[in-house]
Amino acid sequence: MSQFKVPKFMSKYDYNLYYSDTDSIYIDRPLPEKFISNTRLGDLKLEGIYDKAIFLAPKVYALKNNNEEIIKIKGLSQESIWKHGLNIEILETLLKKDSDLKLTQDKRFKSLSEGSIQILEQTYSLKVTANKRKLIYNSEQILVNTSPILIK
Question: What string of H, E and C letters represents the secondary structure of 123-136?
């Protein structure tokens, strides 16, 4: 999403924006029906309404409601997420400052020059990152908000 378009839209309609990505936004309440369509070009598609959400880093988040729990972790396969028993409660513990979780998964490495594929165990460190936002912690050192990093 455009860094100029989303904030303008959010402030015009008084939404709190929790997370945005290339083609999605996560906000604090439902959008008016006039902005939602599965078929109209340029409109938004309503994927779900969730009671709880954790956003640790770009493309690393968990969503939960009474019917489902979705966990997306860039670089970690869905199989690894299931194998490690990750859920929103575990990800929530990573909001504590300097917390991390080491996970492993098998990853395939191709070598075209050698004509081979190796399967190697890879370690993945799951933690809050501040590469696009400034992290804001409360007095208990729990992440409670972020603010944009402005480059002039």
Answer: EEEECCCCCCEEEE
Q: Is the domain of 112 the same as that of 84?
A: yes
Residue in the structure block whose two tokens are 């902005």: 35
CA gap 76, 123 in Å, rounded: 10
pLDDT values of the chain reduced to their tens digit, one per residue, 152 residues: 455 455 566 667 777 777 777 667 777 777 778 888 888 887 777 788 888 999 898 889 999 998 899 999 998 989 999 999 999 999 999 999 999 999 998 888 888 888 899 998 999 999 998 887 899 999 999 999 888 887 87
Contact predicate 69/62, CB 8 Å? yes
71 with 126, same domain: the answer is yes
CA atoms within 13 A on the CB side of 113: 0
Q: Residue 13 belongs to what domain range?
A: 1-47
Name the residue among 28, 88, 25, 85 with its Cα closest to residue 54.
Answer: 88
Dihedral angle, C-alpha 142, 146, 151, 152, nearest 10 °: -110
In angstroms, the CA 54 to CA 30 distance is: 18
Q: Please state the domain count of the chain.
A: 2
